[in-house]
Amino acid sequence: MPLIKRRNNKVMSLSASLPDDVSGVFAGSTCVVMCTTDPISCLRESIMEMIRDVGGVCDWNDIEELVYCYISLNSSALHQVIEEAFLSFGSFPS
Description:
With 94 residues, the chain is of the alpha+beta class. The chain is 40% helix and 11% strand. The chain is globular and about 30 Å long. The protein starts with a strand and ends in a 7-residue tail after the last helix.
């Protein structure tokens, strides 16, 4: 049975895991499964939280790995939403 926590009225499950080939700055990250009615806002918030947690991104390879993590962990039905969330930033904090 997956471990489920409540934070800010969001139900989170810690049952997912990163792909084995993730080896960059996000390799030690914890995956959180969320249900939401506003996926773009939640993804934007999650992306920024991930970047803050590793102290910023150093180069394009870091962003590419983060995109890969989100794409590999989510169904193809969400891939366009993930793309929109990433592209909505325009640039990322370093």
